[in-house]
Specification:
single chain; 448 residues; alpha/beta; 5-stranded mixed beta sheet; 18 helices; 15% strand; binds NADPH dihydro-nicotinamide-adenine-dinucleotide phosphate; nucleotide-binding; oxidoreductase
């Protein structure tokens, strides 16, 4: 264990004893607790108030059965989850993930991280996360609809516009949000902003679809500029080809970069002329096809089987935008060897702890997910504001607010790192800056 402070060590050991099988959650908790050592040392009142013990336990965990009938008439059963982690600064807020790998450990890790990320946005949102081990790949629209309706038939009783406001994540896009919103409205007989990521005709926010990818680039741009670099003329590698990856491509290209590689879980493509995000959008959002199909549009591009090799593609900036632990130590070594000078996380916890340490030790600018991918949830927060106001802002207005939020996140993160003697360490800075507001709210609200 890398935690040295005795109080934090005790809290972490308690977690390892209670949840030995929750490896993703333990990984996320260890990283945060390690960053908090100087803060806890400066605030002995936190230990007296049992603050960290409370922060690492979710306020509520809901697990439920999701039965549905497939197109062949066969009954299928999946598991559903909602982890309501912390509501000290606002209603629980965080996405729903539909992917076969989903389990309680993954949802707890995501929910825990979400608390700090949401705090960093400066908006009044607590942290939560949910999902199911349902796999939407290869299912018909009717099957996805029946699944979503069944999922919401249980979830509706735990959420609400002032209680818990879920959104999308891996495997949950506009289609799934629409089906779930329809079912919530039908059961509750209420039209409220209970989900974000909604379609524009029924209360969605313009720029929400683009927000995580755009926000990632706004954050990265700020980080680059603060270090005398820029996207202009840079070669960028983006893993994944989903929601985050596609719009990160669009914004990085607009900012003057060339995106030369992207992936899905089967393999990756390299196109030295630059990958057009519109082609990727057509393949992934319209056709829901594999990334290999890119060769039908651009025959001069190269396809390589296996997604891991993407980190061997020489680049200046890498944006991991697929999934957790997708950038391991070997990948980090390859990036450094090829001269990469900046990595910013679009996905949640895509970089393993040893890879993060290696990148930082080798002088690579590193933007941690909590800060760099907070643009999605920030814009979900703006969607909530619009729903409460019963107003709709223009794309430009939302985008300008998103830009301001990301610039502030960078500044607050960098300042927190510097204040606690870790200048340039944005991992520590994001954890500390996110933590401070929640800690202060929890201290004011008593032992709850
Ligand atoms: P999507 O489901 O839209 O896309 C995920 C993409 O990652 C797909 O292209 C998928 O390929 C690919 N992928 C999955 N596993 C791997 C792997 N092992 N190697 C390479 N590619 C892989 O999800 P999102 O884009 O929404 O989310 C991506 C990440 O960003 C997640 O970590 C999510 O938590 C995070 N995030 C998302 C936000 C949002 O607003 N959407 C907000 C903040 C964070 P395939 O189709 O083959 O599965």
């Amino acid at each position: 264990m890398s935690i040295k402070n005795a109080y934090l060590q005790g809290v972490y050991e308690g977690l390892t004893q209670r949840y030995p099988e929750q490896k993703e959650f333990l990984q996320a908790a260890e990283e945060v607790l390690e960053s908090l050592e100087p803060v806890v040392a400066a605030h002995p009142e936190y230990e007296a108030a049992g603050l960290i013990e409370r922060m690492v336990e979710p306020e509520r965990v809901v697990m439920f059965r999701v039965p549905w009938v497939d197109d062949a008439g066969k009954v299928q059963v999946n598991r559903g989850y909602r982890v309501e982690f912390n509501s000290a600064i606002g209603p629980y807020k965080g996405g729903l993930r539909f992917h076969p790998s989903v389990n309680l450990s993954i949802i707890k890790f995501l929910g825990f991280e979400q608390c700090f990320k949401n705090s960093l946005t400066g908006l009044p949102m607590g942290g939560g996360k949910g999902g199911s081990d349902f796999d939407p790949h290869g299912k018909s629209d009717a099957e996805v609809m029946r699944f979503c309706q069944s999922f919401m038939t249980e979830l509706y009783r735990h959420i609400g516009p002032n209680t818990d406001v879920p959104a999308g994540d891996i495997g949950v896009g506009g289609r799934e949000i629409g089906y779930m919103f329809g079912q919530y409205k039908r059961i509750c007989n209420e039209f409220t902003g209970v989900l974000t990521g909604k379609g524009i005709p029924y209360g969605g926010s313009l720029a929400r679809t683009e927000a995580t990818g755009y926000g990632l680039c706004y954050f990265t741009d700020e980080m680059l500029k603060a270090n005398g670099k820029s996207f202009q003329g840079a070669k960028v590698v983006i893993s994944g080809s989903g929601n985050v990856a596609i719009y990160a491509n669009q914004k990085a290209t607009q900012l003057g970069a060339k995106v030369i590689a992207m992936s899905d879980s089967n393999g990756y493509i390299v196109d030295e002329n630059g990958i057009d995000y519109k082609v990727m959008k057509e393949i992934k959002e319209v056709k829901r096809a594999r990334i290999k199909t890119y060769l039908d549009y651009v025959p001069s591009a190269k396809y390589v089987e296996g997604s891991q090799g993407i980190w061997n593609v020489a680049c200046d900036i890498a944006l991991p935008c697929a999934t957790q632990n997708e950038l391991p130590l070997e990948g980090a070594k390859a990036l450094v060897a090829n001269g990469c000078y900046a990595v910013a996380e679009g996905a949640n916890m895509p970089t393993t702890p040893d890879a993060t340490a290696y990148l930082q030790e080798n002088g690579v600018l590193f933007g941690p997910a909590k800060a760099s991918n907070a643009g999605g949830v920030a814009t979900s927060g703006l969607e909530m504001s619009q729903n409460s106001l019963r107003l709709a802002w223009t794309f430009e207005e939302v985008d300008a607010r998103l830009h301001d939020i990301m610039v502030n996140i960078y500044k607050n993160t960098a300042a927190a790192a510097e204040e606690y003697g870790m200048k340039g360490n944005l991992v520590a800075g994001a954890n500390i800056a996110g933590f401070q507001k929640i800690a202060s709210a929890m201290m004011s609200q008593g032992v709850v």
